[in-house]
Design goal:
Order of helices and strands: HHHEHEEEHHHHEHEEEHEHEHEEEHEH
CATH topology: TIM Barrel
CATH class: Alpha Beta
Mean pLDDT: 92
Bound molecules: phosphoenolpyruvate, cobalt (II) ion
CATH superfamily: Aldolase class I
Length: 460
């Protein structure tokens, strides 16, 4: 039995509103906002407390080194991308990567999508200025489809509460499709051919990646059949395919509206997603986001950038998890390939001394972003891999362990990150650059990354 959670003195779903400074944007019509929130609160939840508790248990096992977390998806989902093709392609690449990781680590993999709700984006500035018809025009920044729309026009950039209802609906549609696919056998590990992407046999897939993957699937299939023939029971655990959802819990109005108590369970659940996370810009120990998320029973992720103060991170963990509940806190470091050796050891030791149990995860994407000379945002495959590698090594050297990875990726054949076996170069970036936000690994870079990660895991 997990320990009973500590009561949360002085907390209710709206106490974050007294803290202030939660958002970089404002809704201009409080009545309009209130009307939408009443509707959102009346709608059914997107996920259930049973699923959340199951994920927390699995994350606790990952903390103990018995599972590995794979979290990935778009930087920002867009309402218009709620299409069957985009959803199945995302599931397929996550499934394929997870298979590679199961094979390499010999551990069950927890699959968590950045999907069915990843619609909000923090920005470096609350406003954006552009020259329009020779005049400087300043509008609110685009904060993701949960808040406003990307077009640089006053109407589009106005934070509109209705966007929350639209995003809730798209999340529900996505989840409905994902659940049906998974239940219907699409994700059956006996049939990895179901998840081949249409361009899997495409000439552009580097033969070395395809061959390695195909050989691995064959070996895995043999192993699976062999263990089943022996009547091996643990096989159920390895082959049961489940997807959990996650998103940055940026817009606290949205999270609050779907936060409730449920029959026969203690405490409050944020039912917009299984695992919300707090972004690197919003993780102040006394800030509104930590105030909100300290009150919910979901596992909560915290992003940690290079500027983070280890003492503050320990304080965040204490506030989020005063009872040291296993599986509750997931610390996602995104320090930059070159800073890991310098910064991670102090974080690890401070958290170990003062903050209890956490699951350490590496996001090798966000601190390895660069702009090309022509101003295109990109990330290099090698820098991403280097951050993973040094993070694995540093944990091992500190007597800790890395229990998961967090990627921005897509199942589409885009050209946003450079490198990998297919050799995407800076000159190729403009050919199929689709992200409105950060550059994602494309399908084959993601699969190749999983293979390289598998090799690292085999080593440590
Ligand atoms: C993100 O995950 O898309 C993001 C904005 O990350 P971070 O908070 O780590 O910058
Ligand atoms: Co991003």
């Amino acid at each position: 039995m997990p320990p009973t959670p500590e009561p949360n003195p002085g907390w209710s779903p709206d106490t974050w509103q007294q803290v202030g400074g939660a958002h970089q944007f404002e809704y201009d019509d409080p009545q309009d906002l209130a009307r939408v929130l009443v509707q959102l609160a009346a709608f059914p939840p997107l996920v259930t407390s049973w699923e959340i508790e199951r994920l927390k248990k699995e994350l606790a096992q990952a903390q103990a080194g018995e599972r590995f977390l794979l979290q990935g998806g778009d930087c920002a989902e867009m309402l218009r991308d709620c299409t069957p093709g985009a959803i199945t392609n995302k599931l397929k690449i996550l499934l394929q990567m997870s298979l590679v990781l199961v094979h390499a680590s010999k551990k069950p993999v927890i699959r968590v999508g950045r999907f069915a709700g990843q619609y909000a984006k923090p920005r470096s500035s609350p406003t954006e200025t552009r020259v329009v018809d020779g005049q400087g025009v300043t509008l609110p920044s685009y904060f993701g489809d949960l808040v406003n729309a990307p077009e640089f026009e006053p109407q589009a950039r106005r934070p509109d509460p209705m966007q929350m209802l639209r995003a809730y609906t798209r999340s529900a549609l996505s989840l409905n499709f994902i659940r049906s696919l998974v239940e219907g056998g699409f994700a059956d590990l006996h049939h990895p051919e179901y998840w081949d992407l249409s361009f899997f046999s495409h000439a552009s897939l580097a033969p070395v990646v395809r061959d390695r993957y195909e050989r691995m699937v064959e070996r895995l299939g043999d192993g699976l059949r062999f263990m089943e023939a022996l009547g091996e029971r643990t096989i159920d655990d390895l082959t049961r395919v489940e997807f959990f959802t996650s998103h940055e819990g940026l817009n606290l109005y949205y999270e609050q509206a779907q936060t409730r108590t449920v029959p026969r369970r203690e405490g409050w659940y944020d039912l917009t997603t299984h695992m919300p996370w707090i972004g690197d810009r919003a993780r102040q120990p006394d800030g509104a986001h930590v105030e909100f998320f300290r009150g919910v029973r979901n596992p909560v992720g915290v992003k940690i950038g290079a500027e983070a103060d280890p003492a503050q991170i320990a304080r965040v963990c204490q506030r989020l998890n005063p009872g040291d509940e296993p599986g509750k806190v997931v610390l996602i470091t995104r320090l930059g390939a070159e800073r890991v050796r310098d910064l991670l050891p102090r974080l690890i030791s401070r958290v170990a001394d003062a903050a209890g149990r956490v699951l350490w995860v590496c996001d090798p994407m966000h601190a390895n972003t660069q702009s090309t000379t022509s101003g295109i945002k990109t990330r290099s495959f090698d820098a991403i891999l280097a951050e993973l590698e040094t993070t694995f090594e540093t944990h091992a050297a500190c007597g800790s362990h890395l229990g998961g990875v967090h990627f921005e990726l897509t199942g589409e054949d885009v050209t946003e990150c450079v490198g990998g076996a297919a050799g995407v170069t800076e000159a190729d970036l403009s050919t199929r650059y689709a992200s409105f936000c950060d550059p994602r690994l494309n399908y084959q870079q993601a699969l190749e990354m999983a293979m390289r990660l598998g090799t690292l895991m085999g080593r440590t």
